[in-house]
Amino acid sequence: MELTESNAKLSTGIDGLDLMLHGGFPRKRTVLVIGGPGSGKTVLCCQFLHSGIVKNNEKGIYVALDYSREAFLHDMLGFGWDFQKLEEAGSFVFLDGSSIRRIPHTQVVGSTLYSSEDLSFEDLIDLVTLYVNKIGAKRVVIDSLSALIFRFPDQIQRRSAILSLIESLSALNVTTLIISEVSQGDFTRQISTEEYLCDGVLSMYMLKDGSRAVQISKMRTVQIDNKPRPYAIVSGRGIEVFPNETIFT
Amino acid sequence: MEIMGDIGPVFDALKKLLVVMGFTESSLTWPTNMELRRGKGGLFVTNIKDCKTVLKVSLKQAHDNVDILFDYNIELRGMFTDKDNQDIQAELMKIKHALVDVAPSPAPKTPRVCEVCFTPLKVEDVFCPNCGRSTDKQKVTVSPPQQSKLEVSFDPTKVQFGQKGVDDILYGGIPNNSAIVITSPPCEEEDLLITRFIETGLDQSEIVVYSSVDNSMMKNQKAIENKAFYQLICNPQADLMVPEGIKNVTKVKGIEHLTELSVALTTLLNNISLTENKPRRLVLNILSDMLLSCHSVNTRKWLSETIAKFKTKNFTILAKLNPHMHSKEEASAVLDLFDGQIDIYEKEHEGSFKRYLRVKRMSNTQYSSKEVELVREDLLIQK
User: Fold this and answer.
1) Any alpha helices (H) in A57-154, and if so which ranges?
2) Is residue B358 within 8 angstroms of chain A, CB to CB?
3) Contact A200/A220 with Cβ under 8 angstroms?
4) Domain segments of chain A: what residues?
5) Per-residue pLDDT tens over the stretch B131-143
6) A98, A162, B101, B199: which is deepest, by most CB within 10 A?
7) How far apart are CA A215 and CA A238, in angstroms?
8) How confident is the model at residue B342 (pLDDT cuts 50, 70, 90)?
9) Contacts of B267 in chain A (CB under 8 A)
C-alpha cells in the first residue's frame, strides 16, 4: 500500500492521544511504550490493537512474554475488549512467548551451539513473521522488551539485538508497539538504548501525587505535542488522555 | 399632557390603569382629581415598586382634549445612588408613556345627529334645531382601557443570586459568563448567599456544578434531588462523606491534586449534556484550601485554566475566598483573575455586629457601590 497523507497515520484508539500525535502513530514504524509498573502500558497497547481490529478492520498480534493467555483475556474483558471472540473470528492472535523467555542460556541445535539470546530473538521474529503473514496483521504488540533483553548486560550486544528486532519488524510492513519497563516512573528517569533505536517513544508516568501523565518524547515523521498530558485508566473504557489539560507538579 | 376625549371616560380609564399598576386610590373627586398610593417604604426597600409613592392626577376638559397633570412623589431610601436615580427617572417616564399609550381612545367622531329627524347637531345644541327634540340621551362610546403591567425590568441575561437586595445592587445579578469572587470571613450569611445562588440556578433549570472540600450541600435535599446539580468533593475521606444513592457526585482525593481535579472537572463537563443554550453555574468553594495547599503560582495557573475552560461552555463562575487565611500577596495573586469581586464584611452598628455586602468591582457592567446589609433571616426565607 502506498502511503498517502490520509493513510500515513494509524489511530491509536485513544482520541486524546491521536490529538497529541496529530492523527496517530506513523504507519509501519516501531514505537516504544515506556512506563513503570501499573502505568497502563499493556492497556494502551491492547486498546491500540482492539480499536484497530474493531474500527479499522486491521488485524493484530499480541506477543506475550510474561502474561498468560487466560489472565490476558480476563483482564481485557474488564475494559470491554473480548479478544477471545476476535481470536475465534481470525482477527487476532495471542502469541505466548514465555517459552522463549525460559530457554536455557545455551542450546545445541544439530551440531551448532546457540546462545539463548540469539535463539530468543530469532524464534520471536520467526513466530511473528509466520502469524503476520498468516492472518495479514497490520498491528503488532510485543510485551515486553525488558523480558527479552535482560540477558544482554553488554551495551553493544544489547543495542545490536534491539536493532535486529526493529529491522525485522519493519520489514514485515506492520506498525509495532514494543513495551519496555522502567523502574523510575517519573520525569527524572534515564534514557535507555532502545529509545534511540525506535521510531517513536511514548512514556507513561505515575507521578508522586498519584496522577498519571503521558508524554511523546519522539515520533519520527510526525508532528507531536511533546508536553506531558494527564490520562486516566477507566474501567470499561480503557485509557483516556486529556490533551488540553496541564500537569501540575 | 393632553389626551383627546371626554373627561369622564378618561378619568375612569386612568384610574383602572393605575390600579392595575399596583396603585390604590386614596381620594377621588370625579372626574377632576384623584390621589393614589403604592408601596410601603422602609429601610430595606430595594425596588422602586416597593417605595412609598403618592401619585396625584388632575384632569381638565379643554374642548375635545383632556389636560392631565401628574404629580409624582416617591420616598427613596438612602441606598439608591445617582445611578439609581437615573433608572428611577427612566421608570417614571415609562409610567408616563404607558399612561399615554393606554389612555382611552376618543369615541369615533361620527357626526352628531338628531335621533328622530337625523338633522346634524352642533356640540352646544341641547335641542334639535329642526324638530325640537332633546339631545340629552346621545350616547358616548368609550373604548375599554388596555391593561398594562409595570415591571422594573433588569437585563435578562444576568445571573441572579436570588436574594433581592444583592441582585438589586447588581442591577439584576452578575453578568452571564463572568467569573466573580466573594471575599468574606467565614459566616453563615455567605454560605446562605451561595446556597441561594445554587438554588436559584436550579429553579431556573440551569446546570449547577458545585465544588467543595466538605459535604455541606449533601444536606440540601432540594439540590441533591435535582438532576441538574453536580458536585465535586475534594477530600481524602470523600468516599465516607457521600451517602449511598447520591447521584452526580465526583470524588477527588484531595485539593492538592490539581491535575486530578482538573481531569475530574473536564470529565464532568464531558459527561454533562450541554445542549440547551441556558446559563450554567460553577461554584468554586475550594479556592482558599487550594491556595493554602498549592500556593499562589499553581493555584493561579489552575484557576486561570479552569475559568477559561468553563467560560467556553457558557458557565458563570462564583468562587469564594477567605482573605484572612492568606497573605495579602497570595490573595492578590488570584483575585485579579476574576471579572468582579464582592466583599462581605462585619461592621458594628448600635452596639451589635452586622454583616454587609458591597460590590468592590465588576467589569463591563453597571452596579451600585452602596452596601447592603445581609440579614440571616432574609437569606433563610425561601423565595
Assistant:
1) 69-77, 83-88, 98-101, 116-135, 145-149
2) no
3) yes
4) 5-241
5) 776 665 433 333 3
6) A162
7) 18
8) very high
9) 232, 240
Chain A residues near residue B301 by CB distance under 8 angstroms: 246, 248
Residues B9-63: tens digit of each pLDDT: 778 778 877 877 778 888 888 888 889 888 877 766 767 777 788 888 888 887 7
Q: Say whether residue B346 is in contact with chain A using an 8 A CB cutoff.
A: no
Q: Yes or no: say if A119 and A107 are a contact pair by the CB < 8 Å rule.
A: yes
Model confidence pLDDT, tens digit, residues A79-93: 999 999 999 999 999
Q: How far is B272 from chain A (nearest CA, A)?
A: 17
Q: A247 to chain B: which residues are within 8 Å by CB?
A: 259
Predicted TM-score (pTM) of the model is: 0.68
Give the pairing type, strands A139-143 and A60-64: parallel
A245 contact B CB<8A: yes
Q: What is the mean pLDDT of residues A117-138?
A: 83
Alpha helix locations (H) across chain A? Answer: 15-20, 41-56, 69-77, 83-88, 98-101, 116-135, 145-149, 155-171, 193-197
Q: Is the model more confident about A27 or about B87?
A: A27
The ipTM assigned to this model is 0.75
Q: Name the residue among A211, A244, A246 with its Cβ closest to that of B260.
A: A211
Q: How far apart are CA A15 and CA A23, in angstroms?
A: 9
Tell me the CATH architecture of domain A5-241. Answer: 3-Layer(aba) Sandwich (3.40)
Phi and psi at residue A115, to the nearest 5°: -85, 155
Asked if A211 has any chain B CB less than 8 Å from its own CB, the reply is yes
Contact B38, B23 (CB under 8 A): yes
Name which of B256, B257, B262 is nearest A245 (Cβ-Cβ). Answer: B262
- Calculate how close chain A gets to B305, using CA atoms only, in Å: 9
Amino acid A156: pLDDT: 85
* Residues B84-94 as b or e (16 or more Cβ within 10 Å = b): beebbeebeee
What residues in A contact B256, CB-CB < 8 Å?
A: 209
